[in-house]
Design brief:
single chain; alpha+beta; Ubiquitin-like (UB roll); five-stranded mixed beta sheet; globular
Length: 104
């Protein structure tokens, strides 16, 4: 099972185990990390699942869609490491991925 290294807004680090084929958003929420609001449930309508992916891990992610980029443009705290966790599907290739939950 692929694992994620999640840093919360408070700086706490947690290793989260997930299943392939499930979004990072669902994996994080299923692990009980509720600060990832994910209000729209993964329909890419709110950006409340915004995360910062660790720099070295960015290259392992699929290319960001133009729709995801446009929605991230609405976030004041968008950086070059910003992604919507609802748009990334967990797979064995992403084992060990590191990310930080973005500020609200």
């Amino acid at each position: 099972m692929p694992r994620l290294n999640v840093t919360t807004r408070e700086g706490l680090q947690r290793e989260v185990e997930g299943k392939g084929g499930v979004s990072l958003m669902e994996t994080i929420r299923n692990a009980g990390i509720e600060e990832l609001a994910a209000i729209c449930g993964g329909s890419m309508a709110c950006a409340t699942c915004h995360v910062y992916v660790d720099g070295p891990d960015l290259a392992r992610l699929p290319v960001m869609s133009s729709s995801e980029s446009e929605l991230l443009d609405t976030c004041e705290r968008r950086t070059s490491r910003s992604r919507l966790s609802c748009q990334i599907i967990l797979s064995a290739e992403l084992d060990g991925l590191g990310l930080t939950i973005a500020p609200e």
